[in-house]
Amino acid sequence: MSQRDEVKMAVAATLPSESGFDRSVSNVLSAMEVDPETGLAEGDASERLVRFGPNELEASEAEPAWRKVLAQFQDPLVLLLLVAIAISLLAWALEGADGTPFEAIVIAVIVVLNAGLGLWQESRAEAAVAALQRMAAPHAHVLRDGQRHEVPSSEVVPGDLLLLSEGDAVCADARLIESTSLRVAEAPLTGESQPVSKTIAQLGSATALGDRTNMVFSGTAITSGTGVGVVTRTGMDSELGRIATLLDRTEDAKTPLQTEIDLVGKVLGIAVIVIAVVVSATIILTSEISSGSDLVEVLLVGVSLAVAAVPEGLPAVLAVVLALGVQRMADKNAIVKKLSSVETLGSASVICSDKTGTLTRNEMTVRSVISASGSIDISGSGYLPDGEATLDGERLTDAVLLEEVRMVLGGGSLANNAHSGERDGEWFVEGDPTEAAILVAEAKLGAAGARAARFERLDAVPFTSERKLMSSIEQDNEDHARHYVVTKGAPDVLLGRCTHERSAGVVVALSNDRRAQIGAGVDLMASNALRTLAVAYRPLDDPTTAVDETLEDGLIYLGSVGIIDPPRDEARNAVSEAHAAGIRTVMITGDHPLTAGTIAKQLGVAPPEQSVVTGTDIESFTEPEFREAVRTHSVFARVAPEHKLRIVAALKADGNVVAMTGDGVNDAPALKAADIGVAMGITGTEVSKEAANMILADDNFATILTAVREGRGIFTSIRKFLRYLLSSNMGEVFTMFFGVIGAGLLGIDTAGGTIAVPLLATHILWINLLTDAAPALALGVDPPMEDVMAQPPRRLTDRIIDREMQLGVVLTGAVMATATLAALDLTMTGGIFEASGGVVEGRTAAFTTLVIAQLFNAFSSRSGRNSAFRHLFTNKLLWGAVALSLLLQVAVVTTPFLNTAFDTTPLSVPQWLLCTALASSVLIVDEVKKLILRTNTSVLASPEPVR
Ligand code: ATP
Questions:
Q1: What residue owns the CA closest to ligand 1's atom 20?
Q2: Confidence class of residue 835 from pLDDT cuts 50, 70 and 90?
Q3: Quick one: residue 231, left, alpha or beta (phi over 0 = left, psi -120 to 50 = alpha)?
Q4: Ligand 1 centre from 526 Cα, in Å?
Q5: How many CB atoms are located within 10 Å of the residue 728 CB?
Q6: How far is it between the farthest Cα atoms of the chain?
Q7: Residue 545 C-alpha to ligand 1 middle, in angstroms?
């Protein structure tokens, strides 16, 4: 029995019910050997991690390296080549094993190089995806060594104290030892659709899983409240682990683009194999096949043609380009969880964003306070408590007003879960920025200490976007331990629960006029872009220690605060960039309509004259009215999370590709429903991060635009290398096909060669190796030539290889083949043009021309319509790749050893010039084509999409 199993047995023995739900809290804590005050010691936790293993559901085994290597040789075309090598060796052996079997060796080297390249590309792509997965990995909060720590969920161990709050994804099974209104969504585990309330009370040992209300389970989510649980089971030992079948190791489903490209590869493959068969048969018919080795050569030509012409490098290059793209996005704070989102991002036509923190900085400062006796300002900015209350620019001295302001801020600081104070001589604030701002404002008045000493919290219900309220129950230690409920929240919601107001130390009934007056004051603050919040309280006649909603009625209104949260500087540009790129921006916020409207106007999200649609409006709309509102309005305020889902659905029904941001647990359905769910890396809950396709590491709206720009850029790069690889392959196929068909015309059959082919198998394979690799990859990372954000979004249904590209590929292929065959004929005896060279010289010239033509084609392929000379030197990698390919070709033509291996011969300078001149026709013809396309847009009905 392994040590791990022994430990498991030991724990099982101390916790017979396997999780401790039928035990008392103290019993479970001692069984798990953990102190509830401090949690585990860090050292103990690491030791337990070794003993129990990581808190993960086991995935199936990773593919071993040898299998990946083998997979490179499993391509039917490569297998065909391997057979060809065997045949070639056999023929060589049958003919007396004379000399070195160069052809077989060259082909073998090329096959191995190709496989190596494939492996390198694959590992590069895998590494990028793995790095992203680490970045998007879930985290949990635990108490260790008396401190709150955020750790990767995989490092949570049995005995850890899990600190749970709204929006957390529970990552292990835990027995609760504290629960404050904790509610948990357990549907993934038990199928129960409603959140379950959790307590810490001990249960009977026969309690079924769904009724174990003192436990939280891995795979579930906290919908509200807070709690602490001691972890009893992790990883595969958890309830989820028991029901989980082995997970497949993140075998990412293919993206639509990958599927399209696979299909292209397949169709081309079949076409090319047919052509290869026709070419081989023609050679056999037209040549005088006299020996077995000739026959082998013909077969090799057929096989090589198939191998070279099928763009088998495409999927690998595509995977690398996508992977490098997502890596670049991650460097710019956009963590994309799935490769397919890259494509969707490039097509986004609407971006729905919340306001607070995404479009604004989430740096809150209380600016104004309005109470019954007047309205004051508070100076200072940021979270340092430097500032004071002022009235008309002067320091506030009015004792009555000052007392009221203190009560508003004091109440706001009691119903508050943020923390502030001094630590090691440094001022600090922690928690929700809105709440922190109130603490800071109170500290500016120097009132925080006395308030904190006087009141003791008995219970609290944290703020939720649904209720838009937060309440706490406080015991007043200076007034006979009297209990109060203190509530802060959205003014419109809170006022509805107030019946009285505190004015100059007296509680008076709220008249309708006074309500209207308060509302007007709040609206004034909101229209100045301030975030508004009201504070109220009520003494409780009976000592009560738990908040329930009935306590939040009949409240006494204290006053309201106005908090500034400036728009992000970069958001304004991002919004206008989105509009220029044909992307609509929509603000969906829980905030006040006037605040939202003002910020939206400042940022240019909506035109000044457009009205704001509120959650109440949405509730009153009929479905067609709602659809219309979504179509015509860009600011939605005071909405609840479920409205987001409806907005996404309406936008999608209109044919939009929708990106939607969200941070709370209740945003998860909308994030899932959107084409691109965007979660907040800093303020977002774990649940929202799980539901999203993309995480913004900096919570910044501008980052979404950066991701869209990258997505579009990646798409243009893909088009570039597709254009390049397909047209280059077409050039090879045409050369071989027309060379063989026209062998008589070109004089190949009479030139003293054995078989009538323009290029040998090794030539084709060499070209394939040179061009499929470095230049194609360099094009895959080519920076976009034109402004990708100046065009409308691409429709998801648009084919990537459209008609224009198809025609371009055929044209370039035809020009390339013509140049290659012309080089052959202009160098060799016989044929249309008389020359003195032999067949080896002719083939060397053709071979070289085709290589150089492909290098010219690499530059042409950088744009479908723009001249290749535009931004000619921006892609250093491409120049490097071209230089390398050229150098290798020079080596193949000039070095005696490679001459033997490739059956080539050195060319004279005029011959090199001839080859280069002929090859450049690819560039020239393409430039003419592009000029026609640019000047005569009617050649194609539609304007060029993003490319
Ligand atoms: P967004 O949806 O853009 O992130 P938001 O954060 O303003 O916007 P909510 O968090 O739903 O949206 O806030 C709605 C309203 O609730 C605010 O306008 C404010 O009046 C009130 N509010 C916000 N935070 C708190 C809080 N911590 N306690 C009490 N009331 C709050």
A1: 490
A2: confident
A3: beta
A4: 13
A5: 32
A6: 117
A7: 26
CA-CA distance, 832 to 812, in Å (whole number)?
Answer: 23
Which range among 477-486, 505-514, 833-842 shows the weakest confidence by mean pLDDT?
833-842
**Rounded (10°) angle between helices 399-414 and 433-444:** 150
Does residue 754 carry a pLDDT above 80? Answer: no
Look up tokens 């220690």; give the residue: 545
Average pLDDT over residues 67-77: 71
How big is the chain by its Cα radius of gyration, in Å? Answer: 36
Q: 425 and 352 in contact (C-beta within 8 Å)?
A: no
H-helix or E-strand spanning residue 564: strand 555-564
Q: Is pLDDT above 90 for 278?
A: no
Indicate if 392 belongs to the active site: no
Q: Name all residues whose Cβ lies below 6 A of ligand 1.
A: 354-356, 432, 434-435, 463, 465, 468, 470, 488-490, 531-533, 589-592
Torsion angle of C-alpha atoms 604, 605, 607, 613, degrees rounded to 10: -150
561: its two tokens:
């605060």
Reported as a single tens digit per residue, the pLDDT across 3-56 is 445 545 455 445 444 578 888 888 889 888 999 999 999 999 999 999 888 888
Instruction: Check 22, 173, 237, 354 and give the catalytic one.
Output: 354
User: How far is ligand 1, taken at its centre, from the CA of residue 434, in Å?
Assistant: 8
CB 727 within 8 Å of CB 861: yes
Tokens 């800071």 correspond to: 440
Residue nearest to atom 26 of ligand 1 (CA): 463
pLDDT in tens, 783-832: 887 778 888 898 877 788 888 899 999 999 999 999 999 999 999 887 78
| Average pLDDT for 458-474 | 88
Which helix or strand (DSSP H or E) is residue 508 part of? strand 506-509
Q: Which residue type sits at 333?
A: N
Pocket of ligand 1, candidates 434, 467, 563: which has the most ligand atoms within 8 Å of its Cβ, to mutate? 434
Q: How many CB atoms lie within 10 A of CB 84?
A: 23
What tokens appear for 325 in the block?
């793209």
Residue 268 structure tokens? 């081309």
Q: Is the pLDDT of residue 833 over 70?
A: yes
Amino acid at 192: E
| C-alpha 537: how far from chain center | 45
